[in-house]
Amino acid sequence: QNKGIIFDLDGVIVDTAKYHFLAWKNLAESLDIHFNKKQNEQLKGVSRVESLKKILSWGKKSISEERFESLLHQKNKEYLGFVDQMDHSEILPGVLKRLKILKKEAYPIALGSASKNAKTILERVDLLSYFDAIVDGNEVSKAKPNPEVFIKAANLLGVEYQNCVVFEDSIAGIDAANNANMVSVGIGDQEVLQKANFIFKDFSQITDAHFNEILNTMKT
Ligand code: G16
Ligand code: MG
């Protein structure tokens, strides 16, 4: 196959967003900072360091570098506690079925995620073996909407950028895919993901006919 399939992790494959929210909320409250669900949207697809910076700015707090590091550690420790309880039942609807079809048809498959915990999570939900390449928060220096994460994934797959399709749930991620000249497919809310080439509520809504239509928009 000369077409590559790239998946975001959080919000596309699994709903770890709820665990990020809980861990950040608890951490913020220990600092007497309170934020709501709407503010939490701004943390999606954003790195751990940038997320903490945002939370501190909401609370108008400045802290030492050492304290910053220890808070990052504290948040991740709680988050990993939730991740540890996960199993394959937390794979979002339709994802496993699509991965199986893609594997059978020998499509190169990559993960493009901002998370440093991506591999751990894929292992927990038993999906690691489906991916030919993984690019995560440990390998990228420029956050989405910079296309670096998806460019690296395409390079590892050996597929041309315009022959890749990206599945994403965040605005920054859709922008990143568009910036890389890839076909962007939004998973989630139509109003939020307007700039995507295609939008579906979740993977269970993507039929084989839809999938072929998506792949057929590529020139080669
Ligand atoms: C995910 C989440 C973000 C999270 C980031 C970093 O990105 O959407 O909320 O802050 O990863 O995660 P970690 O602290 O595990 O390194 P993605 O790109 O998978 O949606
Ligand atoms: Mg995401």
Task: Compose a concise summary of this entry.
43% of the residues lie in helices and 11% in strands.
What would you note in describing this structure?
- The active site is at residues 8, 10.
- This is Beta-phosphoglucomutase.
- Keywords: Carbohydrate metabolism, Isomerase, Magnesium, Metal-binding, Phosphoprotein.
- Its cofactor is Mg(2+).
- Mg(2+) binds at residues 8, 10, 168-169.
- This protein has 220 residues and is an alpha/beta fold.
- 43% of the residues lie in helices and 11% in strands.
- The protein is built from nine helices and six strands; from the N terminus they run E-H-H-H-H-H-E-H-E-H-E-H-E-E-H.
- The protein has helices at residues 17-30, 37-41, 48-58, 65-84, 95-104, 118-124, 148-157, 171-179, 208-216; strands at 4-7, 109-112, 133-135, 164-168, 183-187, 198-200.
- A six-stranded parallel sheet has the order 3-2-1-4-5-6, with helices on one face.
- Helix 1 (17-30) crosses helix 4 (65-84).
- It starts with a strand and ends with a helix.
- The model has no long low-confidence stretch (mean pLDDT 95).
- Residues 8-11, 20, 43-48, 51, 76, 113-117, 137, 170 line the site of 1,6-di-O-phosphono-alpha-D-glucopyranose.
Strand order within the widest sheet? Answer: 3-2-1-4-5-6
List the total number of helices: 9
Order of helices and strands: EHHHHHEHEHEHEEH
| Unreliable segments of 5+ consecutive residues | none
Radius of gyration: 17 Å
Structural class: alpha/beta
| Strand coverage percent | 5-15%
Overall morphology: globular
Please report the total strand number as a whole number.
Answer: 6
